[in-house]
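A reminder before we start the practical. When you read a complex entry, don't treat the lines as separate problems. The point of joint prediction is that each chain is placed relative to the others, so the output describes one connected object in space. Small molecules and nucleic acid strands, if listed, are placed in the same frame. In the example below there are two entries. Take a minute to note the order of the lines before looking further.
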Amino acid sequence: MRHQSGQASATPVTDDATVIAQSRHDPEHFAVLFERHAPVLKRYAVLRLGADVADDIVAETFIAAFQQRAAYDLTRQDARPWLYGIATNLVGRHRRREITLYKALSRRGADPADEPFTEQVHERVAADRLRGRLSGALASLPAGHRDALLLVTWGELSYEHAAQSLGVPVGTVRSRVNRARQKLRRKLGDIDPTL
Amino acid sequence: MDEMTLLNRRRDEVPLPTDLSAAGNRLLAEIRRTPDARPRRAARPRRRGALVSAFGLAAALAVAATQLGGTAAAPPKSPAKQPTSAAAVLENAALVAEKTEATAIRPDQWFYMKESQPVDSFPVYEHWSRMDGLMQALRESDGKLKVTESEKGPTNSAKTQREVEALPDDPDAMLRHFHELKRNLAALSICEPECPPGSEQDRRAYGAIQWYLKYGPLIPPDTAATMFRAMAKIPSVKIEENVATAEGRLGLAVVLDFGEAGKGYTILDPQTYRYLGVKSVRGDHTMAMSVLDSGIVDKPGDTP
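Here is the predicted structure of the whole assembly.
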């Protein structure tokens, strides 16, 4: 949406709430929100579902947000919790695909590299194995725990913002993240306690 | 290396996508959906109820309720004195609504609303929504009227009207219905994300009634009455008098009171019980939004 960049740069310091308020008068202004947040949302979708459905998730997230913009709580200056909340709901419709992706990654991560052995290769193989373990462990988490953990890590949201995204109290996010971390730690530790 | 470091590293391995054209184009297509060349004519006007102002009646009923409420100490010549129990005030509001004459709204008419926004650059949002749900209009920042195909979202008047018509006509059944809504319709968050445990159903019901009361002119009088009676049954609902809206109009507030955790206000005209605005207060932090005007008009650009 290159044509919108002039408009975006003309209003460089407005917060998301102002952009949404303006988009009620001028719907095309909603594109500013897309320019601002589509890249991180797409990365989040790529990480959770893979590249092939990430575009759909991003498009559906922003279309849903656009249709609901009149109901947006304008006291929330940062729209990311809202957008990540919509995206996380959409990801939830693809739960089986997400699990399949993590399991595939967990197998691929364990492949030994077919190259002469060097210290570098050793490190990479170890890192790959760890990455594979991580994916396998993510697949084993309860969905609600996984959502909370990945909103604060892959989505880079604060606990308060993750709570807004999920519509739960911040204490619930905290305990879900803690429990998810404990489980990951257990699963990662099982394979290589020295790491 | 701990699991958070691993997750963060995993995130950083995926570069920020730059090809967003597919998703961007789909959004643009949605934004630019052009209006139908010719909106379909409604076959016949349907009868609609509407909550219209009823000053005299409200005042008379306020007197009756004052007497019923047992505030006999009040001087007999002060009909403006409100009973302060939530049940009495909201029953009064329900009686006023019930005595209001229902007016028919034609599908080719428009619901007009002028709202305040807590945003300095765009303090007022003025919009019209056609009652058949096909078209909408808004006042752009340059003052021009822009008419487009209607949004399908929550501000579509036809959608609101369908939802309102489907509401149960008994206060308890209405509350149960709102408890089961998938999302909270409240315009402003009250205590999120630190709400008292177990308050979710009450917040959902309060938020839903608050949402629909905003569309007062679309709500049939009997339904409005049920809403007021349902509100009175929500625990933690209290009444506060002389509560100021964002622009300083004083009203009667139906308050969802969670004390320290936050208070949500639905501010009503003390005479007509018409919706004036909402307010959310948490500590010394206050947020408010108001409806400055609303009503049924014949064409976009008209005001009541």
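Discuss with your neighbour: The mean pLDDT of chain A is 83. What might explain this?
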